[in-house]
Amino acid sequence: MRVSDGSLLEAEVAKLIVQVLNLKIEPTQIDPDQPLFKAGLGLDSIDALELSLAIPKRYGYQLRADDPEIGEIFASLRSLCRSIEKNRTK
Amino acid sequence: MSLGWLRQRERSNRLALRVISWIALHLGRSIARTFLYPICAYYLAFSREARQAIQAYLPRVLDRRARWPEVFGQYHCFASVLLDRVFLAAGQYHRFTIDLQGHELITERVARNQGCLLLGAHLGSFEIVRALGLTLQGTKIKTLMYEENAAKTRDLMWTLNPALGEITIAAGLPNTMLRVKECVDSGGVVGILGDRRLGQGPATECVFLGKPALFPGNTMWLASLLEAPVILFFGLYRGGNRYDIHFELFAERIIIDREDRSRQVQLWTQRYVERLEHYCRLAPDNWFNFYDFWGELQ
Lengths: 90, 298
What we know:
The structure holds two protein chains of two kinds. Helix content of chain A is about 55%, strand content about 0%. Chain A is built from four helices and no strands. Chain A starts with a helix and ends with a helix. By secondary structure, chain B is α/β, with parallel strands linked by helices. In chain B, about 50% of the residues lie in helices and about 20% in strands. In chain B, the strands form two sheets. A seven-stranded mixed β-sheet of chain B has the order 1-9-8-2-5-3-4, sandwiched between helices. Chain B has a two-stranded antiparallel ribbon with strand order 6-7. In chain B, α7 links the parallel β3 and β4. In chain B, α1 (about 5-25) runs antiparallel to α2 (about 30-45), α1 (about 5-25) packs across α4 (about 70-90) and α2 packs across α4. In chain B, about 40% of the residues are buried. The interface of A and B includes residues 22, 49, 53, 70 and 71 of A.
């Protein structure tokens, strides 16, 4: 059940990323283990800021720049979803 | 424009900075300044790319052909500002005569605990503005800095003034802009430079001094995400020990529709470029983008 929950959330967050950042790809094209930044999906720090503004609106989870795990959280779609799952309030 | 250029410039800046800072701290400012002439002559003779860039820039800003002393003056102004960074980092503000215009734009906001974005350019001295921030009601102007490229410059400056470490935001990390937003939201002041595009980042084309050039395509978008006032700043070096610092309100809010983003970013950036032109004409020798800015040189 956890597994299906996880992939459901991944699909939802992938959609959010594509929507918020106006990416010219389908949400399903985002590999959950691919790096979100630089070499992977190619997002930059301003994209990260936009996601950080969108995520609390949807999930009630405010990302913090000085969270010691911030690098890990932004590493991939999967790790981002793990963090949302753990901290979401809605 | 390319990262290769950035590395090359950083290398040469680092060498020049190390040499003149040693002289400055051991022999004083006026003696150090006499060393700027041979240093500048060396760069004028051997840095072809920089010389060509200056020769492309000057006729545009002056509306006439540039004379050799003016080309040399460009290096000399750059070297002077670089040298003064050493004194500013060491907290020796008393050495300078600073004329301030519009600084209440910052202090009033800081007093109300309202954060803002300071937007400048590689025109004149960023450090003089930051130094001013440290003296003005303890306003901390945080600045973005690329860790890997500025490492040596940073080490030197931080040795001179450890407080500088606290007012730097590491650039190029996923959380960089989130940190900027948090800082501004909590009443802080963040300074960035909007004229130089790094690597393959997004760009927007604006007419600068009569010819289209590429400017960063995400600065204005960032400003709109910050939902904070944007204040322009230029710390112009006017020779001797004089600096003129100009602050100017650019926008209380930059609002950009996501659907129309690229067009509106271009319009806002063009507005910024027009103010940049104004200050370039005020102090032509303060322009420190010594590379092929218009993408026209071989």
